[in-house]
Structure prediction request, 285 residues.
Amino acid sequence: MTTIIRVLVLALTMVFTAVNAQDFQGVATYKTQRQVDIKLDSTQANAEMQERMLEMMKKQFQKTFKLTFNKEESTYKQDEELSKPQVGGGEFQVIMIGGGGGSDVLYKNTKEQRYAEQVDTYGKIFLVKDDIEKIDWKLGSETKFIGEYQCYKATFTKMVPKPMQMSSADTDEDIDLDKEPEMEERTVTAWYTPQIPVNNGPDDYQGLPGLILEVHDGKLTIICNKIVLNPKERIAISEPTKGKEVNQEKYDEIMDKKRKEMMERYRPKKGQRNDGQSFSITVGG
Prediction:
């Protein structure tokens, strides 16, 4: 059955590729959201405060991105926002660790299997350049429509660090920042459509015989809600050039160091007690 599905999908892709080979371009708009879990005892926050925190953090993770693409290249960038949600102030604050700023740009060249990502991290611009890592997708038999496009299911598994949980009651003696994180297996699910014949998708998801329209990766969900193919005005896709150039491994080392510095700064010190009125939550990028 899997072999038949592969043949059918590839056949459809070849047909649509032949029809749309000339100057094929498009813009796909994606909405992202991340499930947020907050567990605090009554000495840290009452039910009303926890609800306010949860709603505020949900808004922080609800963003809109645009994937501008042609047959071989794409840029993925956060759409402009009228206003950004306020995080912090009053009784509590939320510390966002990582990149993901509105000026970040991810460029991918699927023909040359490489990417360049311009990232604003703590006010410093980095240009991360590296090869696109191949994803070992498993093509499934399930289908569904997303808008007018018939989509096929695909999955792959990867190892990810288990979330680190740190309460305001923890002290220097309770947390070992140098300890290697425990790993766990996660299955990522994507829905792609051969009707749009590009092996691309949002963020760092790609490598399927059709544009990826939906992704479920742990607590992260990405859903396409608008597609414009071959717009009247030709789209210019430019590779970013600004920032200190590093590869992905080096950038990950820098980010790991920054995370530890931030956690060291905000975690309670030995002998320090929570006053029951203020605390911090650290959220990974």
Q: What stands out?
A: Residues 14-22, 82-90, 274-285 have pLDDT under 50 and may be disordered. The longest helix spans residues 248-266. Residues 2-135+217-283 form one domain. The chain has one domain: 2-135+217-283.
